[in-house]
Amino acid sequence: MAATRGPASDPARRLSRRALVQGGLLTAAAAPFLAACGVRTHDYGELIIPAPNHPVKWPLSKRYTAIASGQKPKPGSVLRIYNYADYVSPRMLKDFESKWGVDIHLSTFNDADEALTKIAAESLGFDLYFPSYDSVGKLIQANLLRPVNQDYLTNADNLWDSFRDPWYDRGARYTIPYTIYSTGIGWRTDLADVDLTKYPNPFDVFWDTRFKGNMAILDDWHTAMAMVLMRDGINDINTTSSHALSRVRDELISLRSTMRPKVTITMYNDMPAGQYGLAQFWSGDAINMPYYLPKKVDVDVLRYWFPPNGVGEVDNDLCVCLGQGSNPVAAHYFMNAILDETSAGQNFGFTGYQPPLKQFTPSQLVKQGFVPANLATAIVQESDFEKGLPLLELPVTADTEYHEIWQEFKSGG
Amino acid sequence: MAEEIVTTAAAGSDDNEGGVGSPWFWRGLALPGTAWVLLFFVAPLYVVLAIIFGSIDPILRQPVPVWDPLHWDFSQFNYVMGRIFGSDAYFRPAVLRTIEYVAIASFLCLLIAYPVAYFTARFAGRWKGVILACLIAPFWISYMMRMLAWINLLQNDGLVNRALSAGGLFDVHEAWLSGHGSTVVLGLVYGYVPYMILPLFAGLDRAPVSMLEAARDLGASRWQTFWRVTWPLTRSAVVVSLLVTTLPMLGDYFTNDLLSGSPSTSMIGNLINNAVLTPGQTGQAGAFVLVILVISVLPMFLYVRSTRSGTDIAV
User: Fold this and answer.
1) Per-residue pLDDT for A43 more than 90?
2) Comparing A41 with A238, which gets the higher pLDDT?
3) Measuring CA to CA, which residue among A10, A12, A6 is closest to residue B7?
4) Mean pLDDT score across all residues of chain B
5) What is the pLDDT of residue A31?
6) Between B67, B93, B277, which is nearest A111 by CB?
7) Strands in A74-172 per DSSP E
8) Among the CATH numbers 3.40.640.10, 3.90.1150.10, 3.30.70.580, 1.10.3720.10, which is that of B75-309?
9) Which of B85, B82, B47 is nearest to B66 (CA)?
10) What confidence tens digit (pLDDT) does each residue in A282-301 have?
11) How far does B89 lie from chain A, in Å, by closest CA?
12) Helices B181-206, B231-250: crossing angle, 10 deg rounding
């Protein structure tokens, strides 16, 4: 065949080992030049971790200054929003666009770690981001946020009083609260015969072999591990005790081998679809479940449990203005819209996650049909934050230890 | 005849500088491919190495690539290797599981794809075009949608359980979507089998019919003709089709996420995905990528050998 006599068949022209080594050495030699495209590293000093018993008033950023008061969004400008998927109402976005003539570009992420990676790159120009408060310290200390000019937040009076001056951001210099939620247990009475009163600790239900292959836990390392800690009677769900974490590890491994749980964050869709009957749940997802339930199934089969004494996991998400964005004025107007009763209602109706506004009382939420009566336990009240247990940012060593345990659990080894 | 042409071209190369016979012409032909490999393989691989052996931002826990090999830190790489080969080897089951799932799924794909490709190439006649179009049709539907369809079929009150219960005769409540390895293998087979059929069809269609006829004329049975003529002629196509399906399966995480979601069926792709999404573990994800690279070198080596032996035969 003629082709076999072409240059490729010439032994002298084949890629020799020597050529390969030479190529490798050349690449290594080019390394210092590649280093010129270097990545920005940070020198932060000591890591500050806010907590309810250790409130923090962050210094104002020197890198990004607050915008001047009295400005209006520029019509035709682009507002870039970075949020979880399905975590903001499209109608609310459309209304905002119509009202201010701004073009909103919504980008989504699946979890906070993924979001942080992209935000840290600082090249995508997002104006607004929706973190949990366990990332706020990192964002501020890495100089990624722009302080909020409170003059624009004319709806701030709607907020629950306890959220006007939160412990994670005294003076609300960088954040506004977005949604509130608890973490509990959800089930379908037609798929899982659950009676939480028969367990010494209600979280034992996740280890009840009657529900083997019929259950799921949240694919969120800290939330899932906090549940195991509470099962062990440890209410310090941010513990750095290696002994406690070692127990958590053993219980997670036992859970995996005996119960074959699904580890996911889509239980709001999976459970209504009948994939399993029992799951660890965020209250917002529980409230959203009826939307995904097949028409033939009665909403009445859905249940959500949160510790009746209020000692359970309660958290809130926030909205922050990123320094990298080019439209901070529109960003401030959007933040104010989040605190508006009507916009917040639209958003709640779509996401199922409750805004911490005075207008949304439990009785009203049930009466107005936002929440079915059998899921009223998923409504979060202001008093829940007095006894509730928040997930906090962890010191680096403990954070690594938590992550390693979760990694072992998820690797299926 | 063709040999003569090439020989002539080669002989004329000295007099024809810069022309078709010039060595620079042949080297020039390699330029686009070389640029492609450098840009889309060597450079990204170096970035992966710079991340594996790089450092971590102390607060954001993001990877900080270190470009200079003299300053590389091997702790992340050693961590992963220690958990695959060491005493605390909790990654090892996922690696072995991946090899097991991929081997079974590839074998099943071949079992399904070869007869289909054989039929299409040999017996489809004027329907060949229609059958080929049908074979390509799954590519028009996204992989995710095809997997989502299985979720509906396999869920507890889905069609599969209803069919198995034979109209209520048996009490079947199998939770197919809760950590069944067989479900993951099924998903892999279903997802990747079209990718195997096409290269197999190309190989079988190219095999000269005259050789098969010669074998039959010389008294070989149908089976002997297949085993001694068709199979050796299509061995390269089989290796290519296995590569085309096996390599993406090795890094697949999506099938397992959708059809199982349970850690008990985690594959290397899931370990990579989890590590990438976890602050401080991106370097580990890179180390897993290297593991996959090493595992995939073996079939690549087999492929290179098989094509080289094909060339040798041709010579």
Assistant:
1) no
2) A238
3) A6
4) 86
5) 52
6) B277
7) 78-84, 103-109, 128-129
8) 1.10.3720.10
9) B47
10) 999 999 999 999 988 999 99
11) 8
12) 140
With a pLDDT cut of 70, the percent of chain B lying above it is 90
- For A117, the token pair is 């990676």
Average pLDDT rounded to a whole number, residues B71-98: 93
Residue in chain B closest to A33 (alpha carbons) equals B67
> CA distances (Å), B45 to each of B1, B51, B269, in order?
44, 10, 17
What ipTM is given for this predicted complex? 0.79
Cross-strand bridge partners of residue A159: A357
> What tokens were used for A407?
């990694």
How is residue A217 written in tokens? 């836990």
Within chain B, all domains assigned CATH 1.10.3720.10 are found at 75-309
A136, closest residue in chain B (CA to CA): B60
A7–chain B Cβ distance below 8 A for any pair: yes
Running DSSP on this structure, what letter comes out for residue A145? B
- What are the tokens at B182? 């067989």
In the predicted model, is pLDDT for residue A209 greater than 90? yes
Q: What is the 8-class DSSP label of residue A10?
A: -
pLDDT per residue over A145-166, tens digit each?
A: 999 999 999 999 999 999 999 9
Q: Which of B160, B176, B178 to mutate: most A Cβ within 10 Å?
A: B178
Element at B5 (helix H, strand E):
helix B2-11
Q: Write out residues 178-207 of B within 8 Å (CB-CB) of A.
A: 178-179
Could you give the CA distance from residue B278 to residue A94 in angstroms, rounded to a whole number? 34
- Quick one: pLDDT at residue B8? 46
Q: Which residue of B has its CA nearest to A37?
A: B67
CA distance A138 to chain B (A): 6
- Average pLDDT for A254-280: 93
DSSP letter, residue B55: E
Cβ-nearest to A262 among B61, B94, B178 = B178
Tell me which chain B residues have a C-beta less than 8 angstroms from the C-beta of A260. Answer: 178-179, 262, 264
Give yes or no for a contact between A280 and A218, defined as CB atoms under 8 angstroms apart.
yes
For residues A261, A262, A265, A267, the Cα torsion angle rounded to the nearest 10 degrees is: -90
Which chain A positions have a beta carbon within 8 Å of B10's beta carbon? 5
Measured on CA atoms in the order A215, A218, A222, A226, is the torsion positive or negative? negative
Q: Comparing C-alpha atoms, which of B184, B170, B181, B175 is closest to residue B156?
A: B175
Tally of CB atoms within 10 A around B45:
15
Residue of A nearest to B280 (CA): A400
* DSSP output for A236-298: -TT---HHHHHHHHHHHHHHHHHH--EEES-HHHHTTTTS-SEEEEEHHHHHHHHHHS-TTS-
At position B113, the amino acid (one-letter code) is A
Query: What is the reported pLDDT for A24?
Result: 52
AA letter at A196: L
Q: pLDDT tens across A4-42, in order?
A: 333 333 444 444 445 444 545 555 555 555 544 444 455
Cα dihedral value B148, B259, A114, A91, nearest 10: 30
Residue A212 confidence (pLDDT)? 92
